[in-house]
Structure formats: C-alpha cells, structure tokens
Amino acid sequence: MYEGPIQDLIDQLAKLPGLGPKGAQRIAFHLLAGETTEIDRLTAALGKVRDDVTFCDECGNIAADRLCRICSDSRRDATKICVVEEPKDIYAIERTREFDGRYHVLGGALDPLSGIGPDQLRIRELLKRLAEQSDGSVVGEIIVATDPNTEGEATATYLLRMLKDFPGLSVTRLASGLPMGGDLEFADELTLGRALSGRRILV
Ligand SMILES: [Zn+2]
C-alpha cells in the first residue's frame, strides 16, 4: 500500500501476534513521526532480546544467569513443580501469590497439526528433574497448569500418562473455572488463584 521501508516495517509488525495490519500501521507511523532516539532504543532492545536472553538450566524460564530467580531461591518449595507452557505463564501464576513451589516450562503444547509432538517440548527434561533434582530434593507433586484449551488438555493428558507410574508422585490439574479456550495469562489473578488452590488430584 505504501512505498518503500515504511511498508516493509508495517508488513513485519503485522506478523506479530495480536497486532494486525491496522495496529501495525499505527505503530509504524508513530515511529516515523517520533524522535529518532525512540527507534534507536527499540532497535537496541530487540538486539538484546536476540543476543542476550538466556533460559534457566533447570526449569526453562527466562533467566539472567544459569538459574532463574525462582530456581535459585532456596525458600521455594522444591518438592512441588508447576508445569506451564510458556515463561509468561509463570508470571501469571506468580501474580496470584498462591504458589510457593518451582516451575517447569514446556515451551509450548502438543499440537500434531503444527508438527509439535512430545520431542519438541521439554518433557524429557521434566522426567530428568523427577529422577534427580539439582539440590537433591524429591518431587512429590506435579501441578499441570497448561492452558485451558484443546492443545493444553492434550498435553495434560499426555503428561498424566507419562507421570502416573512415578512412585510417591501425585499429579494435579488446575481446577475448572478458568475461561475455556483461552490462555492462562488472560485469567484474572483471583480466578487463577482459585483454580490453583482448588486443584484436583489426577493420580
Ligand atoms: Zn528456573
């Protein structure tokens, strides 16, 4: 529609989730009209995300060091692991202040149509953690907190099958009441907190 670089920018922005062509156009023209330092700061931030973001060795959360803030906090209960799809889900659950355990990030959910099977998720790493935690503690509960949608449910069912025979391990799932079909991060703190405290035992 437009000529040259501004259209390229709109095309790139429109590929981002939740933006769409209109939102992309608004941001592109905002940047064009603004101070050039704003573009410099944005470019620098993008470069840092590309080059400097690392992930926790233990749980897969975003980390500034080898271990994330939660895994390196000895006050967190290492006998409980809450399994989530993405790092952003950790922040949603942390906001409820209902959970004092640790996390495990799968990096997505099972979605065979998009070619995402168990090997594409950090399931092997989870099983390894159950066998040997880095601090020697034994995991007694896995809380499956995948999203309340088709892929999330399929992932929960798969995990349950993998985990049900671990001796001394109980597997729980967030209570119903979360908006079905949605993302965990869109649930308000109260609803998510209730789903967490009312979690049901699967095995
Ligand atoms: Zn971690």
What do these coordinates show?
- By secondary structure, the protein is α/β, with parallel strands linked by helices.
- The protein contains 7 helices and 7 strands; from the N terminus they run αααβββαβαβαβαβ.
- The strands form 2 sheets. Strands 4-3-5-6-7 form a 5-stranded mixed sheet. Strands 1-2 form a two-stranded antiparallel ribbon.
- Helix 4 (87-96) links the parallel strand 3 and strand 4.
- Helix 1 crosses helix 2.
- It is elongated.
- The mean pLDDT is 92.
- Bound molecules: zinc ion.
- Zinc ion binds at residues 56, 58-59, 61, 67-68, 70-71.
**Strand order within the widest sheet?**
4-3-5-6-7
What percent of residues are in strands? Answer: 5-15%
- Secondary structure: number of strands: 7
Largest sheet: 5 strands, mixed
Spell out which ligands are present.
zinc ion
Mean pLDDT comes to 92
Sequence of secondary-structure elements: HHHEEEHEHEHEHE
Outline type: elongated
Radius of gyration: 20 Å
Termini separation comes to 57 Å
Helix coverage percent? 40-55%
Helix run count: 7
Helix-strand makeup class = alpha/beta
Question: Would you identify the regions where 5 or more consecutive residues have pLDDT less than 50?
Answer: none
